[in-house]
Amino acid sequence: MDGLARLLDTFFNTEVAARYWPDILAGVWITIGVGVAVTATGLALGFALAILRAKQTPWFSIPIVMFADIMRALPPLIIIIVFFFAFPLIGISMSAFTATWLSLSLVLAAYAEESLWGAILSLPRGQSEAARSTGLTWWQTMCAVILPQALRLALPPLTNRVIAVSKNVALGSVVALSEVLNNAQSATSTAGNPTPLTMAAAAYLAIFIPAMILARRMENRMQWRV
């Protein structure tokens, strides 16, 4: 058996692929489900925190800054482990899905808050003052004038961070989440062949390449027109 044949038999074994593709497909749906849930809750919480921080009230600003710094400093894996293994010791138990979703949502919220807050700060202060001088309330000014511009500025780092955090769903394998990589690793161990890992790699490409293309199109549509 030559080198190419050995490569194909090791990483592209059709018999092994046919046997384990249902497990890989099931893991794909879990990965997509957790990723979508993390994106929705993480962005919503991050935007809410950025808006509260824009109120410039110490009671809001200081805890938000502390939250954002801690969540960005800690590796997501540690947060998942704490939620899944440590919280039951104080009477708070959660499933692997919940621990992974909640951990990554908090991490994404921290990055989303910082991205949107930085974009808000970059806007000229005169825009807010001019809007208020026309009789708009603070909330009306934020929603109608500040946020639309800030979102345009924050979109590129936000889309990159969403994709990066969504890929961390694979960390859920540590708490036995049946996502695609965990299922592929189990199948590889059972089959004694790494073809399921090749299938998992193909699944990640199928999931995240369209996501990156969509993100790029959104950035192009929302970029400033000069």
List descriptors.
9 helices, MetI-like fold, 81% helix, 226 residues, mainly alpha
Question: Your description of this structure?
Answer:
The structure is a single chain. With 226 residues, this protein is mainly α. The chain has a single domain (3-222), classed as Orthogonal Bundle (MetI-like fold), CATH 1.10.3720.10. It has helices at 3-11, 14-54, 58-73, 76-86, 96-122, 125-133, 138-167, 180-191, 195-222. The relative contact order is 0.16.
**Name given to the CATH homologous superfamily:** MetI-like
The appropriate CATH architecture is Orthogonal Bundle
- The end-to-end distance, rounded to whole angstroms, is 61 Å
The name of the CATH topology is MetI-like fold
Structurally, the number of domains stands at 1
Largest beta-sheet details = none
Structural class: mainly alpha
Q: How do the SSEs run, as a string of H and E?
A: HHHHHHHHH
Low-confidence stretches: none
Number of helices: 9
Name of the CATH first level:
Mainly Alpha
Radius of gyration: 22 Å
Overall, the morphology is elongated
Could you report the average pLDDT, rounded to the nearest whole number?
90
| Residue share in helix | over 70%
DSSP strand tally: 0
Estimated share of beta-strand residues = under 5%
Brief summary of the model shown:
The protein has 226 residues and is mainly α.
Q: Secondary-structure map with pairings?
A:
Blueprint: H1 3-11, H2 14-54, H3 58-73, H4 76-86, H5 96-122, H6 125-133, H7 138-167, H8 180-191, H9 195-222
Helix pairs in contact: 2-3, 2-5, 2-7, 2-8, 2-9, 3-5, 4-5, 5-7, 6-7, 7-9, 8-9
